């Protein structure tokens, strides 16, 4: 786990799971519990989950929560992508 102190800019790579969902795509970040989004297209779902993940990660230090760090064992599969988020 990583803790952020003060004003810094850090780039994170998190795994995103994309699944077809009722005329669009559901996107989630398993390492960020409860971080989900949706989009009418795959690209829209990725844009939306990137924004959701950035907001989620930014809020963690304020709540005293450690930021999960995913290791190489969490490489993306066919329904997953790596997402880079800068906060």
TrEMBL record:
Read off the InterPro entries from this record. Answer: HicB-like (IPR031807), TA_system_antitoxin (IPR051404), TTHA1013/TTHA0281-like (IPR035069)
Q: Where is the composition biased (Polar residues)?
A: 76-87
Cited SUPFAM superfamilies: TTHA1013/TTHA0281-like
Lineage top rank: taxon:
Bacteria
What residue stretches are annotated with the HicB-like antitoxin of toxin-antitoxin system domain?
16-69
Q: Which PANTHER family is this protein grouped with?
A: ANTITOXIN HICB
Annotated protein name in UniProt: HicB-like antitoxin of toxin-antitoxin system domain-containing protein
> What organism does the record attribute this protein to?
Bipolaricaulis sibiricus
């Amino acid at each position: 786990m990583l803790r952020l102190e003060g004003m810094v800019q850090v780039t994170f790579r998190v795994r995103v799971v994309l699944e077809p969902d009722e005329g669009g795509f559901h996107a989630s970040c398993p390492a960020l519990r409860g971080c989900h989004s949706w989009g009418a297209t795959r690209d829209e779902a990725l844009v939306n989950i990137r924004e959701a993940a950035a907001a989620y990660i930014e809020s963690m230090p304020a709540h005293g929560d450690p930021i999960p760090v995913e290791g190489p064992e969490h490489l993306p599969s066919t329904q997953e992508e790596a997402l880079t988020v800068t906060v």
